Amino acid sequence: MLKMFQKHIHRGSSVELWEENWRSVKLNLGLQFCRIDPLRPLFTKYAKSGSLMLEGGCGVGQYVTFYAHKGVKVVGIDFAQKALKRLNSEVSGLMLCAGNVAALPFQDESFDVYYSGGVVEHFESGADDSLLEAYRVLKKDGVLLISVPYFSPLRRMLLPFKKDVWRSVDKSETEINTENGLKFFQYAYRPGEFSKKLEEAGFEIVKKQGFAVLWGLSEINLKGGKSEIETSPNKSEPIAENVDLSIINQEVSAGLLKRLVVSEDDTIPILGLGVKFMRWFSANMMMYVCVRR
Fold it and tell me: In sequence order, which residues have a C-beta less than 8 Å from that of residue 192 and are 6 or more positions away?
């Protein structure tokens, strides 16, 4: 595993850090991205209209909003209550709940699909409790779509240059004190490492897919990279955004460059092989598609 730190007053699992982060994120931009998301084919396949899906760690709410308006019954849960309140004021009728993904307030076998996008890696003590909870609330044969940072070949190459903020570790462990004002931010996992955690929680893995190649390539900037989040120093609450829900059903202009660079479409003849290579070499995240048996 790769243990990643950043200079911040808060740790990666703190409510304060994410409340700050979500203040600067616009829901309209998130909805536009959902239309060309590299993961959209997976949602189309597994999150069918009428199915009940939980998003654990819904943040600004683009996935909850987008797929709720595609006919999926989505419940969004997050511990950032100010972000939930803002989302509720921007979009009416969403099913939102405050809570912790490591102790979900739902009955056993409640959901058909559980989506967790870049959440469980922020617990310094490890992802195990969150994975066990995901297993508990999914129905038999329910699907878990979970993404975590990928300890890619590119990150392994960059490790010697980033030893001030990155450290290779064998296990998840909470550290009380860190140096130079650094705070724990997240873990990045080799596929075998995270696959083992999923299997120990009871899941069967049916697919793995790297994504967010450009985000991963940005870490070639040896001064930091996009593994760090940028938070706004403005402590005042932003005005609720005027959300344009018509974005969700607008047709997408699928130019070749957009399909390659943004949607990371590996079905394009010949060029798709390059997409697959870059996913393996430098993707920022790895998505695991799992079934609860």
Answer: none
- Contact indicator for 286, 148 with CB cutoff of 8 Å: yes
CA-closest candidate to residue 21, choices 238, 175, 202: 238
Task: Report the percent of the chain where pLDDT is more than 70.
Answer: 93
118-149 in b/e form (b: 16+ CB < 10 A) is bbbbbbbebbebbbebbbbbbeeebbbbbbbb
In angstroms, rounded to a whole number, what is the distance separating the alpha carbons of residues 67 and 128? 27
| Structure-block tokens of residue 187 | 């873990």
Whole-angstrom CA distances from 50 to 23, 67, 109, 186 are 31, 10, 17, 34
d(CA 288, CA 195): 8
Dihedral angle, C-alpha 140, 143, 147, 151, nearest 10 °:
70
In percent, the amount of the chain with pLDDT more than 90 equals 85
Say which residues have a Cβ less than 8 Å from residue 42's Cβ, sequence separation at least 6: 145, 207, 209, 287, 289
Please give the Cα distance from 53 to 238 (Å, whole number). 29
In this structure, the strands spanning 111-117 and 138-149 are parallel
pLDDT tens digits for range 231-257: 555 556 666 679 999 999 988 877 899
Question: Side by side, which strands form the sheet with 203-211?
Answer: 95-98, 73-78, 52-56, 111-117, 138-149, 285-292, 203-211
Half-sphere exposure of 209 (CA within 13 A, CB side): 22
Residues sharing a CB contact under 8 Å with residue 196, sequence separation 6 or more, in sequence order = none
In the three-class reduction of DSSP (H, G, I as helix; E, B as strand; rest coil), residue 5 is classed as strand
Number of CB atoms found within 10 A of residue 83's CB: 23
Torsion sign across C-alpha atoms 76, 125, 200, 118: positive
